[in-house]
Amino acid sequence: MRAIGLAVSTVIFALRPHPATQRPALSIPLVRRTREPYAGRWALPGGWVDPDESLAASAGRTLVETTGVRPSYLEQLYTFGAPDRSPTGRVVSVVYWALVRPEQIGERTDAAFDSVNVRWFVADDIPHLAFDHDRIVEYSLWRLRTKVEYTAIAQGLLGETFTLSELRQVHEAVLDRELDPANFRRQAEASGAVVPTGERLTGGRHRPPRLYRFDTSAALADNGPLGADDPFPPSGEEQ
Amino acid sequence: MRAIGLAVSTVIFALRPHPATQRPALSIPLVRRTREPYAGRWALPGGWVDPDESLAASAGRTLVETTGVRPSYLEQLYTFGAPDRSPTGRVVSVVYWALVRPEQIGERTDAAFDSVNVRWFVADDIPHLAFDHDRIVEYSLWRLRTKVEYTAIAQGLLGETFTLSELRQVHEAVLDRELDPANFRRQAEASGAVVPTGERLTGGRHRPPRLYRFDTSAALADNGPLGADDPFPPSGEEQ
DNA sequence: AGAATAGTGTCTATAAGACAGTATGCC
DNA sequence: GGCATACTGTCTTATAGACACTATTCT
After folding, report:
1. By Cβ atoms counted within 10 A, which residue in A90, A109, A226, B156 is the most buried?
2. Which InterPro entries does the record associate with it (chains A, B) (predicted)?
3. What are phi and psi for residue A58, nearest 5 degrees?
4. Which bases of strand C sit closer than 7 A to a protein CB?
């Protein structure tokens, strides 16, 4: 039995101002490869799985190293393992996807963070990536878009409190289409996932909207018997 | 980098006569472990991934070795990789699930097939399994049941032609609840997944029902940018 | 004819979408 | 007061479910 390399990669999503329009746009951080193969090309953050480390914990490391924050949601996406997907030998990659809240990203300035080789890209304007990462990003986008329509994962991209208008804009940014404000409001309230805080957002240019928060007793997504992944398990137990 | 063992396991589903009632019941083949750890316990069929073999092809081997037939559907389920899931060392298992048509199973009698250590179990009456396989089976059942409600994967369990009554019984066996024949018929026809052959099933005790076949131009399930897995790829290309 | 399943019709409840209309705060 | 957004009301359409009813074949 020859050794097969086992790696983890993570597709990280956050909402960031679009470079052109400044409106919130679904974005993904990528790292530039500094060595062969594919030196100079952009790729998904990731690395080898440590022998004593769970898969989700390995994905958690990836997140910290690139965004510097704890993700609000983490889920296994798919495992890619075609024999020829890496020119240097057999590598099987367990890929995760994560949601990060924008206010937590901040600007990393410490020496450990190499901002030259880490850059955020708008999700629908990704360059041609190394390995089979184009396919992976495409699939992760499909999964996010499918899931945002029938779960409450959008909260993984938002802060503590928010207006329904902001929540709607998150859905619009993810789905890349406009939604009817009236109908969206009704569905959001009927779902029970959001709860009004009783406060209003002042300082806007118009009528102050109500602030909401997510019902913390409800899960972000129903993944069946498997719960959500915990990238930073307290001890060492995990699937 | 210490080596991490990479394995593949497969949850195989087929409809077989329930030992007690003789009615079609969702069933899973298991293999009895002949060595430690967990010697004597039932477990999912599987094995090590060959260095030159794709993950789906490895799952395909599993299928042939236990059921002896080509599966009608194969999909990656999840990758389990907790550091302590095997007492003998670190093993990461990429798990697949598959559907097999009952008429293809047949009874294997050749010497290569050890029927003593391979047995079919009714899905809702599975013994306590080796490793973390209890969880895996539970999750695969959830996935199958979720998917049968919004896709046409039930055809993976049926033969070439069938009556709508038979199709409904497949759904009922999977979901473990009765469905209204009238409403089921309407939905099946409206979905466009089934097409009447123009023939009828004679020889029954009552009014002969129409025979249908699946619309081969439609996919069994929408897995997004990733298509269905092919366990027996012609050359060597795959994800 | 009767039994049993095949197949159709129809009513109700629910939800999504379109869109008109009212409310309220800031300029 | 005007404007932009917040928020409500209501109509239409599609679909799921319940269930009554008709059709056809075999015994």
Report:
1. B156
2. NUDIX_hydrolase-like_dom_sf, NUDIX_hydrolase_dom, WH-like_DNA-bd_sf, WH_DNA-bd_sf, WHD_NrtR
3. -65, -40
4. 3-10, 15-21, 23-27
Could you read off the pLDDT of A4-49 as tens digits, one per residue? 999 999 999 999 999 988 889 999 999 999 999 999 999 999 999 9
Domains located in chain B, CATH noted = 5-148 (3.90.79.10), 153-214 (1.10.10.10)
Q: Kindly report the pTM of this predicted structure.
A: 0.94
DSSP code of residue B193: -
A79 and B79: CB-CB below 8 Å?
yes
Measured CA A229 to C1' D5 distance, in angstroms: 39
Which one-letter amino acid corresponds to residue B77? L
What is the chain A residue with the closest CA to B89?
A51
Question: What is the rounded distance in angstroms from the CA atom of residue B186 to the CA atom of residue B166?
Answer: 15
Q: Which residue has the tokens 């997140």?
A: A63
Per residue in B100-113, pLDDT tens? 998 777 666 666 67
| Chain position carrying tokens 């990462």 | A133
Give B204 to chain A, closest Cα distance, Å. 40
**Is A66 in a helix, a strand, or coil?**
helix
Cβ–Cβ below 8 Å for B237 and A85: no
One DSSP character per residue, A133-202 reads HHHHHHHHHHHHHHHHTTSSGGGGGS-SEE-HHHHHHHHHHHHTS---HHHHHHHHHHHT-EEEEEEE--
Alpha carbons A9 and A13: distance in angstroms, whole number: 13
pLDDT band at B219 (very low <50, low <70, confident <90, very high): confident
For residues B90 and B4, is the Cβ–Cβ distance under 8 A? Answer: yes
Distance from CA of A52 to the nearest CA of B (A): 6
- What tens digit of pLDDT does each residue of B77-93 get? 999 999 999 999 999 99
| Chain B residues bordering chain A (beta-carbon distance below 8 Å) | 1-6, 48-49, 51-55, 76, 78-85, 90, 92, 94, 132, 135, 138-139, 142-143, 146, 224-226, 236-239
Q: Identify the H or E element spanning B3.
A: none
Q: Please list the ranges in chain A whose pLDDT falls under 70.
A: 1-2, 106-114, 235-239
Q: Do B51 and A2 touch (CB under 8 A)?
A: yes
Q: Do the Cβ atoms of A65 and A115 come closer than 8 Å?
A: no
Please report, rounded to whole angstroms, the spatial distance between the CA atom of protein residue A173 and the C1' atom of nucleotide D8.
26
In whole angstroms, D11 C1' to A181 CA is 17
Return the DSSP state at B154: G
Residue of A nearest to B144 (CA): A224
